[in-house]
Design brief:
Length: 244
């Protein structure tokens, strides 16, 4: 797989109708995107915890937590753009959806070509102001003996006051761990979350980035206690994270 396909935008389709999920997934993948699907909010949350997505296509009418509630919740948690799917004639749902943070809406039934055009338009708009730090933008948090400053992209040792500047790759990787403390993340998930691309055979990118990050924050990089290796799983931030 070439570099262009590795970095294709990743779209999450959330709809309780299997025919729509399958059809939209196939159409997007035929047109240069990666696509995953979820049948409800519970399945969506699991996919969001395990991977990075560039846009969510979200149906309003779903069993369990409905799309408007999901849109409101996601808008408060992060900055992933949302395209709402509404039933034809449900103008109230469209207005409320836009008011609570949806980027656009499309009434059902819809033409797949129009869906594709709207997705591309949203991604073009969002590309101009995507925050690298995600939910931690503008914040300071403490983990282990360090304070992470998202705005300055540095970590400061609590006792000594020593500062370590982070490269862009280290900053992205540490942000992912801090957003998911004690959550086991596989190498494939970390590569997707930090770079939006798929791992290739013998890809050591994440291992190398973790090693460099450990050299900056671990008391003993040879025996790490903050970012630990999980046998057969990947890596985990083995400490609590406290917002300051």
């Amino acid at each position: 797989m070439g570099e262009n396909t590795e970095t294709r935008p990743h779209i999450l389709i959330v709809d309780d109708h299997r025919e729509i999920r399958d059809a939209v997934t196939r159409y997007l993948e035929k047109n240069g995107f990666r696509a995953s699907a979820a049948r409800d909010a519970i399945e969506m949350d699991a996919r969001l915890a395990a991977g990075r997505f560039d846009l969510i296509v979200l149906d309003v009418m779903m069993p369990g937590e409905d799309g408007l509630s999901v849109c409101r919740r996601l808008g408060a948690q992060g900055d992933t753009p949302i395209l709402m799917l509404t039933a034809l004639g449900e103008e109230t749902d469209r207005i409320v959806g836009l008011e609570i943070g949806a980027d656009d809406y499309l009434p059902k039934p819809f033409n797949p070509r129009e869906l594709l055009a709207r997705i591309k338009a949203i991604l073009r708009r969002r590309a101009r102001h995507e925050p690298v730090a995600g939910r931690l933008s503008g914040q300071k948090v403490r983990f282990a003996d360090w304070i992470f400053d998202a705005d300055r992209r540095v970590v400061t040792h609590v006792e000594t006051g020593t500062e370590q500047a982070l490269t862009t790759a280290e900053f992205k990787l540490l942000t992912i761990f801090l957003e998911r403390p004690r959550f086991v993340l596989s190498r494939d998930q970390l590569l997707d979350l930090t770079s939006g691309r798929e791992a290739q055979m013998f890809d050591r990118t994440i291992d190398n980035q973790v090693s460099r990050l450990r050299r900056k924050i671990e008391p003993d990089a040879g025996r790490p206690t903050i970012i630990t290796t999980v046998r057969g799983g990947g890596y985990s931030l083995n400490t609590d994270v406290v917002q300051l």
